[in-house]
Design a protein that fits this description.
The complex is a heterotrimer. By secondary structure, chain A is an alpha+beta fold. Chain A folds into 2 domains: 21-39 and 328-391, no CATH class; 49-325, Cytochrome-c3 Hydrogenase, chain B, CATH 1.10.645.10. Chain A is built from 15 helices and 9 strands. Chain C has one domain: Beta Polymerase, domain 2, CATH 3.30.460.80. Classes of the chains: A alpha+beta, B alpha/beta, C alpha/beta. Chains in contact: A-B, A-C, B-C.
Chain lengths: 394, 141, 157
């Protein structure tokens, strides 16, 4: 089979970068994969043992910047699980508003990055411009665009003022027409269908065996969502639908995330309009010895925190498990057998943290290095251009 | 050397590297390219490789694994190359100062020209920092 | 599936392996079993009850080391945590990575952070720590000391 290597981008024969993912290819097909992680390991579990229960919330927020609400939410649920206590209703609604706002901005960020990898740079610019409106709403409610610092064991730290609610509702209503346009652009485009349908299929059995989480498993037909099955916050008082599709390929994962954005807009509008009155926190005097578990549904899957206390004011053990840790091993099954121009979009469909998709390298079967991460993105964009020419779009 | 630097800074090309961060600062750097803040009107572009870059943006508290990668990349960059440290983690490791996997701060590994504090710094702050860098070089310090 | 029936059947089936059973609330159950029985219990909960494996956490209590395996049965909103206690002079246990593929990376992480050997694991290598980390130093143990002479731990002010 004649194969031509297009020398895209400068490659560095002298630079031996310790790669994150190394794909071994034979011709154009991937035959094996080798994974090395550990570039973001900062020892947070050991750090929490040196801080008090209140101070640990601020360290936990900085585990991941995109899901910076999910980790403190799971942590305060774990601390409140150690001994029986009640959180006031108003605090539960405020926590739900912040969590759903984060879900909308995370899914729009993913849509922009997936568009960039496929060569649709306009989708990238539009999705991130839309995301700025949601970040404005979060800045009005909490004071910051990213690290909101709203959670504490027992309730929330700041209240929502009555004058802010109509402004926020107006901003959220203004993004709905553009979201509908983006949904139609993705679901009805024939080039995108040809590019993403049937690529990177994860079967239902494999999704259950690897314990995949979040939209990655819901796209394969596994109907599990922690907000419906193990409700927390205010989710059991609101009418909303769980989105599940059947095929498990890249197209289905995109559809699940886009439709979930509309459900989140519904939830956040309901909570803002029906916010109950009352206190925003319960005072906790001290925490008795015991253990507690908190698990919530982050934009990427289930976040799990386990806290053990021994009666002092510091946690004795704090275990953190992020959802990408369970979703990344599924990349091994979905990419073997696919071609290298699809490798980046299959990885992006799992939605790992942005840093991780930079570090892919490709070796051929004799061990010689051919491409690096930026070259693979260029290959993916060129395949879309070729398909557009075939369909007569340009 | 300062004549070459002056010429380069009409339109500096930027290479971005993360050495173990939480990705917040990286997303804010990418936000600078989007239509609301639009850093391309100043001529700044994201370069595809270190050999094309004039300015190196570093985020994150240096991990043991990422520190070697950073050293190798800095040696390959064509000099003069300016280093900008963005976010609290790259200034002094911030709250990760007692972590077992972050032994030394960034300015013991590579020489740093500009520090931009914040957790994460807003895109307006990043643009202000870049403008300060250009003015500092033009004055010759 | 009814929650009380599931709990009763579990207690009946593993009567000889359970050391202690704590029914903490309607959605939390903590069971302590003997270390030899972990593969049978994991297979029953994962395959027969249709649960999902969440994670495994290791804790260094100063007298022994505990590992907790957490499983969720989402249909009835029940989280079962299975605890095993290991003595410090014999830190090994059978691996469940051949039954549940998702447990592969989790056991590698516990191995390098606490020093527990998982017998029968397909690929027990370092996952998160760098290569120059000394081989017998385990960060999450309670007697961990700083070994790096070149580390700078003050802000230089």
């Amino acid at each position: 089979m004649a194969r031509s290597i297009i020398p895209i981008g400068p490659f560095h024969p002298l630079q031996e970068e310790p790669e994150f993912f190394t794909l071994v290819v034979d011709g154009e097909t991937v035959v094996d994969i080798d994974v090395k992680i550990g570039y973001n390991h900062r020892g947070i579990e050991k750090l929490s043992e040196m801080k008090t229960f209140d101070q640990a919330t601020f360290v936990i927020e900085r585990i991941c910047g995109i899901c910076s609400t999910s980790h403190p939410f799971a942590y305060v649920n774990a601390v409140e699980d150690i001994f029986p206590m009640e959180v006031p209703e108003r605090a539960k609604f405020i926590r739900t508003i912040i969590a759903e706002g984060e879900r909308i901005h995370s899914h729009l960020l993913w849509l922009g990055l997936a568009g960039h990898f496929l060569g649709y740079n306009t989708v990238f610019m539009w999705a991130w411009k839309l995301r700025e409106e949601i970040l404005d709403v979060m800045e009005i409610l909490s004071g910051n665009r990213n690290n909101y610092a709203m959670f504490k064991p027992g309730g929330v730290r700041r209240d929502i003022k009555k004058e802010d609610i109509p402004v926020c509702l107006k901003k959220i209503d203004s993004i709905i027409p553009t979201c509908v346009m983006l949904k139609k652009a993705v679901i009805d485009d024939p080039v995108l269908h040809a590019r993403t349908k049937g690529i990177g299929i994860l079967t239902k059995e494999e999704a259950i065996n690897y314990c995949a989480l979040g939209p990655t498993s819901r796209a394969s037909g596994v109907a599990r969502d922690l907000r419906k099955n193990c409700p927390y916050g205010a989710y059991d008082k609101i009418e909303w639908n769980m989105i599940v599709t059947e095929n498990g390929d890249v197209f289905d994962k995109a559809v699940v995330r886009i439709l979930e954005t509309f459900e989140s807009i519904k939830i956040i509008k309901f909570c803002l309009e029906n916010l109950p009155d009352g206190e925003i926190d319960t005072k906790i005097k001290d925490i008795p010895p015991g253990e507690g578990i908190g698990h919530i549904e982050a934009p990427r899957g289930e976040t799990f925190h386990y806290v053990r206390s021994d009666g002092t004011n510091r946690p004795a053990r704090h275990k953190v498990r992020a959802p990408t840790f369970m979703n990344l091993p599924t990349y091994k099954t979905t990419v073997i057998g696919a071609s290298i121009s699809d490798a980046t979009i299959i990885l992006a469909a799992i939605d790992p943290c942005y840093c991780c998709t930079e570090r892919i390298g490709v070796k051929d079967i004799k061990g010689k290095k051919i491409f690096n991460g930026k070259d693979l993105i260029k290959l993916s964009q060129e395949k879309t251009l070729k398909l557009k020419k075939e369909f007569g779009v340009i | 050397m300062s004549l070459k630097l002056n010429a380069l800074l009409k339109s500096p090309w930027v290479f971005h590297l993360s050495t173990g961060s939480c990705n917040n600062c990286d997303i804010e750097i990418l936000d600078c390219l989007t239509p609301r803040f639009d850093i391309e009107r100043f001529g700044m572009l994201l370069a595809g490789s270190i050999k094309h870059a004039d300015v190196l943006l570093v985020t994150g508290s240096c991990n043991r694994k990422s520190a070697e990668r950073l050293k190798r990349l800095y040696e390959q960059a064509p000099k003069p190359c300016l280093v900008v440290a963005i976010g609290e983690c790259s200034l002094s490791r911030g709250m990760f100062i007692h972590s077992y996997n972050c032994p030394v701060p960034l300015d013991k590994i590579v020489p740093v020209n500009v520090y931009i504090p914040g957790c994460p710094p807003k895109p307006e702050a990043i643009i202000a920092g870049a403008v300060k860098l250009i003015e500092k070089i033009k004055k010759g310090t | 599936m009814v929650r009380d029936e599931v709990v009763k059947n579990f207690k009946e089936k593993f009567k000889s392996d359970i050391v202690e059973f704590l029914d903490k609330s309607y959605k939390r159950v903590y069971v302590e079993i003997k270390p030899e029985a972990i593969t049978r219990v994991a297979r029953y909960i994962f395959r027969d009850l249709g649960a999902r494996f969440n994670t495994a956490s290791g804790v260094d209590v100063r007298y022994h080391i505990e590992i907790l395996y957490h499983f969720t049965i989402e249909e009835i909103n029940l989280l079962i945590s299975v605890r095993v206690k290991l003595q410090k002079d014999k830190l090994e246990i059978d691996s469940i990575a051949n039954i549940i593929k998702g447990a592969n990376w989790i056991e590698r992480e516990i191995n390098e952070m606490l020093g527990i050997n998982f017998k029968g694991h397909p690929n027990l290598q370092r996952l998160l720590l760098p290569d120059e980390w000394p081989p017998d130093v385990y960060p999450l143990r309670s007697d961990y000391q700083e070994w790096d002479k070149n580390a700078i731990r003050d802000r230089g002010v």
